[in-house]
Design goal:
The protein is mainly alpha-helical. 77% of the residues lie in helices and 0% in strands.
């Protein structure tokens, strides 16, 4: 039955929507094996019947409220005060603003839309190439699913039975490394092309004023991470805190979130959440079918025949994920590959938390690789450029992120340092 994986990818190549492709493959497998089709209802329902998954629509809602409530504008302004004077200053601001917003939204698409909508037109007005601007914001938005709160890490934690709190802590350093790597690239790009930032560095007074304006936005990730690490609330309940906080700040402090905006915010949240949960439900059925026919063990035997070395196994997995990421979205890839690869890596001693971060970094790079780089579609539409035109400026940015992926993969302290420190190890 290992041919089911081949059928699944064949359907993807035929441009069948991901969720339907997973469902069709599962149904074919069940029919051929003569399994009672009541399993379809049982497994798809059980896949989404999880308290921890409540965090997904909550963080989606929080991200929507923050975008409409004016938080993204204040983060951009503060980022401009910090790095706007450096070479290619506005491009630096784009990376830093995406990093700040990542610690609030947990979604690459939300980052690309919120920050891109503000900064891509501003970069173009300052003379930046449209293709470069769109590529940079798309690349920086990949930090969103790595730095907590992260929707993919929540999903992985549920599937792998790993502490979501540990995963959130583990994502902080890799996410910051991604931001630093992109900023180093932008710095040298600005030097090479003689792109200057603002005339002078912001004064201490300007920085304090900017920090005061953005303080409440920057405080949210501290509240979320601090709250569940101290036991005040769980990682799932932190989603409720994020929603309430975003609503109060946007509506009553910044006063930019209006009652007329709530309908569209809720509608966008429902559509995004339903899409994610529909994929998860079908993927749960597919995962059960794989386990029922012992396919992970068969796949493990095939991989083990190539090598038992952990570094070789991780290299092979990264290659598979990078290829898959070109045409499978992050949520779908997580639900497909977690049950396939997690038993293999844990068998050779790879920590499940470490592997979760490898998956997150790898698959978010897929969000900027054609043809299914969803963040590219968002920023290209804002910049009004063709996707094919973005490939040349995008290539070095992907290269920089691949270097970070290598560090995260083969230096486990990058991921495990903070969880171990908090646990007292």
């Amino acid at each position: 039955m290992i041919w089911l994986i081949g059928l699944l990818f064949a359907l993807f190549l035929l441009r069948i929507p991901i969720a339907y492709g997973i469902g069709i493959t599962s149904l074919v497998g069940l029919l051929i094996s003569g399994t009672d089709l009541i399993v379809v209802a049982q497994k798809t329902f059980s896949g989404v019947d999880s308290f921890s998954l409540i965090a997904i629509p909550l963080f989606v809602l929080a991200g929507e409220l923050m975008t409409v409530g004016g938080i993204s504008k204040r983060l951009v302004s503060f980022a401009s005060l910090l790095v706007g004077h450096l070479p290619a200053g506005l491009a630096m601001v784009a990376v830093l603003a995406c990093t700040f917003f990542s610690a609030i939204s947990g979604s690459a698409i939300a980052d690309a839309a919120a920050i891109g909508g503000i900064l891509i037109p501003a970069m173009v007005a300052q003379g930046y190439d449209r293709r470069f601007s769109a590529s940079l914001v798309a690349s920086a938005s990949t930090i969103g699913p790595v730095i907590p709160p992260s929707i993919p890490l929540i999903l992985y934690g549920v599937m792998a039975s790993v502490s979501i709190g540990d995963l959130f802590l583990a994502g902080i350093i890799p996410g910051l490394l991604m931001a630093l790597a992109l900023m180093f690239y932008v710095y040298f790009y600005g030097k090479k092309n003689n792109i200057r930032g603002r005339e002078k560095m912001a004064s201490a007074k300007e920085l304090l004023v900017g920090l005061k304006d953005a303080f409440l936005a920057l405080l949210l990730p501290v509240i979320i991470i601090g709250g569940f690490r101290t036991g005040i609330f769980t990682a799932t309940e932190s989603g409720v805190i994020a929603v309430v906080y975003a609503f109060v700040i946007g509506a009553f402090v910044y006063r930019e979130l209006k009652w007329k905006d709530i309908k569209n915010v809720l509608l966008e949240t429902v559509i995004s959440s339903a899409t994610i949960l529909f994929v998860i439900g079908n993927a749960t059925l597919f995962t059960w079918l794989l386990a029922f026919h012992d396919i992970p063990a068969q796949l493990g035997s095939m991989v083990s025949s190539l090598s038992n070395e952990p570094w070789v196994l991780l290299l092979l997995i990264n290659i598979v994920l990078l290829i898959a990421g070109t045409f499978i979205d992050t949520i779908s890839a997580l639900t497909i590959f977690t049950p396939l690869f997690l038993p293999l890596v844990t068998a050779v001693g790879v920590d499940p938390v470490h592997f979760g971060i490898i998956l997150a970094v790898n698959l978010t790079i897929g969000m900027i690789t054609p043809p299914l780089g969803v963040c590219l579609f968002v920023t290209s539409s804002i910049a009004k450029v063709n996707l094919a035109q973005m490939i040349r400026p995008l290539a070095p940015m992907i290269g920089v992120l691949l270097i970070v992926l290598g560090l995260v993969t083969y230096w486990d302290d990058v991921s495990l340092l903070l969880p171990n420190l908090v646990a007292g190890k």
